[in-house]
Amino acid sequence: MRRVTDTATVVLAPNPGPMTLDGTNTWVLRAPGAQSCIVVDPGPLVEEHLVLVATQGPVAVVLLTHGHVDHSAGAGRLAELTGAGVRALDPALRLGGQGLGEGEVVAAAGLELRVMATPGHSSDSLSFVLAGDSGDSAVLTGDTILGRGSTVVAHPDGVLGDYLTSLQRLRALGGLTVLPGHGPELPSAGTVAEHYLRHRATRLEQVRAALAAGAATPQQVVEAVYADVDRALWPAATLSVLAQLDYLAGQGLS
Ligand SMILES: [Zn+2]
Q: What is the pTM for the complete model shown?
């Protein structure tokens, strides 16, 4: 458990791996002096982790950045342990009835969290802008922006065009601290979103070049474009390539 800002503490889930980096970040948010807290992304269904998160309560509400199991599988158990409702964009993931979507403000634990729909990694991905005493101070990005490396556009649920739009919106947040779903916090949403946009442009250029050089299958594109990436990540890279081919086809460029 580590205090990251005045209002945010991270509890690292014990699920490290090639896709989850050090593990899933479960975020516990509360205004200084507030009794209750907001939990963002309970993480996997691991009892010791969820019990540790529950000890940070009382928990006013549990929010999900998206439905991938490394973020959401523990939500039901955490709700049992704490009595809190679970809010998510996907109705199938909610407990206690309340939805969550673009422009909504979640007011709890002395804080206000503004919801931004940031699809692309998945269709149901949300980011939460955390307002501090002196205005917006941080943004919780789930898997839309990670603390290290780049994320996967999980085709076909994830769509690259949506993802680029989401990154542009996050870039417009400027110097807010990024509290990601995996990996360390980052000092500036604007800077990292710009970096991600440039990375995506580079990859698209590489995919175009691979196609021009004769790559005929997604696997051949992966071998050409992701040669510098750990092979354990190639299944994920294949999803991103499929998303990129879909994007280029939509632009009439492939
Ligand atoms: Zn995810």
A: 0.95
